[in-house]
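TL;DR need structure tokens for one chain.
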Amino acid sequence: MICELAFGEWKKVFSSCPVELQPNLGDFAIFKLNTGEEIGKVIKLLDSGKTSTTILRLASQEDIEQDRENKEEEVGAYKFCKGKAKALGLPIKVASAHIQFDKSFLHIDFLAEKRVGLKDLMSELAKIYNRRIEFRQIGVRTYAKRFDAFGVCGRPLCCAKFLKEFQPITIGTVKLQNLSCGAGKLTGVCGRLMCCLAYEKKRYEEEKKIEMQREKQDEKQDEKQEQQ
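>> reply
TL;DR here they are.
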């Protein structure tokens, strides 16, 4: 059996699961990462597929309590890191803080326009949190996904609600749909072209193919008439 597990804020992983455990959707399970143990929620059950981790056990009540304590500590770590980054004058936006279930790691995700030296911030965090600290620079689309915001359509951001992966959106996608490249409404809160522009891309591509086929047929028809 294979379980898809959601953990942290937005991370997901596929884990192999011993048959005797028999997890149900919504159960919490402890699984093994290269960096140690993590806890995740079972969101999908599969018969086969590729896996990158292994479930060690289903979470006990003590495990659930430890996870709750970790989440409370994460809030403090996020606020502390955000405040220190501002005090140090670092040009970054702290997106989230995540403490691994076994407390061995503190993961900090941040947004920055370019590479930033984080040695001083690392030093300040190390004084408070006695564990390994890992920083990860994320992109603007991933950053927007972390927060509850609304698009120009008035609905919650697709990336925050249901999109699992970002698809590349290019000017070619815009032109394919005969949209104006200079229209401000095509830009999302992240500053990039909106993800929803890809929703109908396939249909427009199919229509483009049909149109090209018709043009070829018309050309052949014209050639026949000229020959006659």
